[in-house]
Amino acid sequence: MLMDDTDRRILRQALAEPLAARILWAERAGVTLATLGRRLERLREGGVIKAVRAEIDWAGLGYSVEVSLRFTLDKTDPRAFDEFIEAARGVPEVVAIETFLGRVDVRLNVIARDMAHYQEVYRARILALPHIAEVDALMLISTIKDSEGLPL
Amino acid sequence: MIDLDDIDRGMLRELSRQGDLSAGELGRRFGLSQPAAWRRVRRMEEAGILRGQRMEVDRAALGFGVTVFLGVKLATRGRVSLEDFERAVQAIPEVQVVQHVLGLFDYRLRVVARDIADFERVLRRRIMTLPGLGQVEANVLLTEERRMGPLG
Description:
The complex is a heterodimer of chains A (152) and B (152). Chain A is an alpha+beta fold. Chain A has two domains: 5-45, Arc Repressor Mutant, subunit A; 59-139, Lrp/AsnC effector binding domain/regulation of amino acid metabolism (RAM) domain (Alpha-Beta Plaits, 2-Layer Sandwich). Chain A is 36% helix and 31% strand. Chain A contains five helices and five strands. Chain A has helices at 5-16, 22-29, 33-45, 80-89, 115-126, and strands at residues 49-56, 65-73, 94-101, 106-112, 132-146. Chain A has a four-stranded antiparallel beta sheet with strand order 3-4-2-5. The radius of gyration of chain A is 20 Å and the shape is elongated. In chain B, 38% of the residues lie in helices and 30% in strands. Chain B contains five helices and five strands. Chain B has helices at 6-17, 23-30, 34-46, 79-90, 116-127; strands spanning 50-57, 66-74, 95-102, 107-113, 133-146. In chain B, a hairpin with a 4-residue loop joins strand 3 and strand 4 (107-113). Classes of the chains: A alpha+beta (152), B alpha+beta (152). At the A-B interface, helix 1, strand 1, strand 3 and strand 5 of A face helix 1, strand 1, helix 4, strand 3 and strand 5 of B. Strand 1 (49-56) of chain A pairs antiparallel with strand 1 of chain B, so a sheet runs across the interface.
């Protein structure tokens, strides 16, 4: 879809401060609240805004451990990616699946209630996934910045 | 941590698909009145489980066709250099996510760019000049998928 500077100004505000009130986005983008509403609706219909989702804090639900598991797959089997991802979808502690071009093929974000639970998930569910050639883990200590902001 | 029943969990699932559902609509889906649904949402917000809304956009449609995850290792450790690095990296507009991690790397960054040439510019001018920077590994994001995790 075609976008103009007004659309870009609105998106810049909305992405930079998703929790701010709509009136604040409108003020900063220099439009009225009615215009803002119309523009956001149009951006949504045009597919530029794919979804508005509630953000769930897993730690608030008792999942205090979060680990980024990075896999290299055995790509001699052409079904490796599909079968690995399909199996990963069946693990309830997996909250995100990403595929890459680079040394890492797939990354899984895994949550657990504590280290004992994490160890159980890792040994029983993760290491049982098919076609793993290599795996390494990055344990999350803290999130310093987390934004959907774009330098529009 | 608060106790959640099946309706609360169902509401979290609905809201993580569509975060701007009204309390009235949410109530209808679970056979509750609007005020009853609102009270449940409010309770989960107060407990820190619901952190607010997040807009998901089609980054490619907005001209940002490349997303790269960087694993960063610092060359020198110590309190001061961590703080200097964190302050500088957060200020880069193309860096959306900064996570302090434990493992092969010290930090995980999500970087957006218009194309590979633009990414190279960000990498050379902004990332490589960060204070205390050591080794960097880049993986280009191909696909991403969020899962409902333990709520699924």
